[in-house]
From TrEMBL:
It comes from the Eukaryota. This is Calcineurin-like phosphoesterase domain-containing protein. SUPFAM superfamilies: Metallo-dependent phosphatases. Residues 14-225 form the Calcineurin-like phosphoesterase domain. PANTHER family: CALCINEURIN-LIKE PHOSPHOESTERASE DOMAIN-CONTAINING PROTEIN (PTHR12905:SF0), METALLOPHOSPHOESTERASE (PTHR12905). It comes from Conoideocrella luteorostrata. GO terms for molecular function: hydrolase activity.
Length: 336
C-alpha cells in the first residue's frame, strides 16, 4: 500500500475506458460519466471506413473528459499503410478484376487520410497515439506516463488486418520502468483473453513485458468475450520467461467483473441467482472505482473494455477507474 506521504504526493485521477466500438454509437448513459482521461483501446471501426471513423470521433467528443487517448486496432487497417495497400492488392486479385480506385477513395479515403483525421482532432483533446512511451501532464495536476501499442498477433487465413504480426514472429513491447498505464489493443496471454470456445488469444510477449514492469493499469479489448476486470497480484520474483501460470499469485488476485462470472469463479457468491445478478450489475455499471482498490506495490489492474457484444451491438458501458498518479511539475498538457 502507499504510505501517507506517498498518497499526499499523488492525485486521484479518474479514467473512462472503452474499446471495440466498431464504428457504432454508444448509449446515452455514457454521457452521464465524467473523468480526467478517456481511453479508447482500438477497433474504432468495423470496416475502416471514413464514415465509421467520423462516428467514433463524435462518440469521443461526447465523453466528458478533457483528454481522450486513442489507439488503433486490427479492424482499423486504413491507419496502417502497409495493411491498407495489401487490402487493395487483395481486392485487385479477386475474380481477376481491378478495383475501382475512385470508389475505394470515396469509402476509405486516400492513404493517410484516416490518420490525418485523427491527428487533426488533437485540438479537441483527442490524441491518437502510436506505439511507444508517452508522457502527459493532466489538467488535474497529475503526470501520466503510459505505453501504447496497437499490435496483435495475426492469425493465418484471416486476411490483411491492421497492426498485426504473425504468431511465429516476436514483437517487442518496450514498456519502460515507471510506466503507470499500458494501453494495448489486444490482451496479454492468460488474462481476460478467452473466446466463447475458451481459447486464449492473448499475446505471451505482451504479458511478459507487463509482468516485468507491473504498471498500475493495463487496459485493452480485441477479445469481446474477455470483457471484465481483474486485479492481479504478482509473485515476488518474476520468471525469466513470464507467464500467467508462473507469475500471477492467483490466491491474492481478484476478478472484479467478467462475462464468465459464476458461482465457481467468485467465492463470495454461493447462489447462482446472486451470480447472475452480480454479472448484470457489472454489465450495467462497469465500474471499479473507489478507495478499496489499491494499485502498485506488486498489483496491476487489468481491464478488457470491449464494448461490442456478441451480435447485439454495443451493449456494454465503459469502465470507470480511479488511480493515484504522481503530481506533475509541468503546467501544460503535452504528449511526448
Amino acid at each position: 500500500m502507499h504510505n501517507d506521504a506517498e498518497e499526499q504526493s499523488r492525485i486521484k485521477t479518474r479514467f473512462i475506458i472503452l474499446s471495440d466500438t466498431h464504428g457504432e454509437p454508444l448509449a446515452a448513459s455514457l454521457h452521464n460519466k465524467e473523468a480526467d482521461v478517456a481511453i479508447h483501446c482500438g477497433n474504432l471501426t468495423q470496416h475502416s471506413t471514413i464514415k465509421e471513423l467520423h462516428t467514433t470521433l463524435q462518440l469521443l467528443r461526447a465523453i466528458t473528459a478533457p483528454i481522450k487517448l486513442v489507439i488503433a486496432g486490427n479492424h482499423d487497417f486504413t491507419l496502417d499503410d502497409v495493411a491498407f495497400e495489401n487490402k487493395l492488392l487483395e481486392g485487385d486479385g479477386m475474380a481477376g478484376e481491378t478495383l475501382d480506385r475512385s470508389l475505394v477513395k470515396q469509402r476509405f479515403g486516400d492513404f493517410g487520410e484516416a490518420r490525418n483525421l485523427l491527428l487533426q482532432a488533437k485540438d479537441e483533446g483527442i490524441f491518437f497515439l502510436g506505439e511507444g512511451t508517452h508522457s502527459l501532464s493532466l489538467e488535474n495536476g497529475a503526470l501520466l506516463q503510459l505505453y501504447a501499442s496497437p499490435y496483435t498477433p495475426g492469425q493465418s487465413g484471416r486476411g490483411n488486418w491492421g497492426f498485426q504480426y504473425q504468431d511465429r514472429e516476436d514483437h517487442v513491447f518496450n514498456i519502460e520502468q515507471g510506466t503507470d498505464v499500458v494501453i494495448s489493443h489486444g490482451p496479454p496471454h492468460g488474462v481476460l483473453d478467452r473466446t466463447m470456445e475458451r481459447q486464449r488469444l492473448g499475446c505471451p510477449d505482451l504479458f511478459a513485458a507487463v509482468a516485468r514492469q507491473q504498471p498500475l493499469l493495463h487496459c485493452f479489448g480485441h477479445v469481446h468475450r474477455g470483457w471484465g476486470a481483474k486485479m492481479v497480484s504478482w509473485r515476488p520474483e518474476i520468471s525469466k520467461k513470464p507467464s500467467h501460470f508462473t507469475d500471477i499469485d492467483n490466491e491474492k488476485s481478484v476478478v472484479i467483473g467478467s462475462l464468465f462470472l459464476s458461482q465457481n469463479s467468485d467465492p463470495h457468491l454461493h447462489d447462482p441467482n446472486d451470480a447472475m445478478s452480480k454479472r448484470e450489475e457489472y454489465r450495467s455499471t462497469s465500474h471499479c472505482e473507489g478507495e478499496e482498490i489499491v494499485l502498485g506495490n506488486g498489483k496491476t489492474l487489468f481491464i478488457n473494455a470491449s464494448i461490442k457484444g456478441d451480435g447485439d451491438g454495443n451493449n456494454r458501458v465503459p469502465w470507470v477507474v480511479d488511480i493515484l498518479l504522481p503530481k506533475s511539475a509541468l503546467n501544460e498538457k503535452r504528449i511526448q
